[in-house]
Design brief:
150 residues, alpha/beta, Transcription Regulator spoIIAA, two-stranded antiparallel ribbon, 4 helices, 6 strands, 17% helix, globular, disordered C terminus
């Protein structure tokens, strides 16, 4: 758990500044769901997609393991996401996942809701993402889009 915490009861839930209320109607919001592991690994040495050089075969086993996408990769692509007209990002879970198997790339093998899985990044990375989101603050927790990350 984060910094020796034994329970979520120990967390301080006071707002630390500007609060982003839920919109009047979520149907007015363009939400972009993003599976962090499959989005961008922030490796600038990998060239962009080129149809002529893309592999034509696929290995189904590769779909079952981590591909390396990170929160920094999402941050790197915020301009792209904004360019789509997106108002909010819905992230796959980035909490600490099980480590014994490499098949929790989706984020739903959560072991600790108080820590960010280091394969996805750090708490600071998540804070930077939230502050720079499509409309700052509209980075949604998994399944609870009316409760943004803070």
């Amino acid at each position: 758990m984060a910094e020796g915490m034994k329970s979520a009861k120990a967390l301080e839930f006071k707002t630390g500044g500007i609060v982003f209320p839920s919109p009047v109607d979520w149907r007015d919001i363009f939400i972009y769901f993003l599976l962090v592991d499959r989005f961008d690994d922030n490796d600038r040495s990998i060239p962009g997609f080129e149809d002529s050089s893309a592999p034509r075969e696929r290995d189904p086993e590769e779909g079952k393991v981590f591909q390396g996408g990170t929160l920094k990769g999402v941050i790197r692509r915020l301009d792209y996401i904004r360019g789509l007209g997106v108002n909010a990002i819905w992230l796959s879970p980035v909490f600490k996942n099980r480590w014994k198997k490499d098949d929790a790339y989706h984020g739903y093998g959560i072991q600790d809701f108080l820590e960010i899985d280091p394969r996805f990044g750090t708490r600071e990375d998540l804070q930077v993402l939230v502050k720079g989101g499509p409309q700052a603050g509209n980075v949604c927790r998994p399944r609870y889009c009316n409760q943004p990350y803070r």
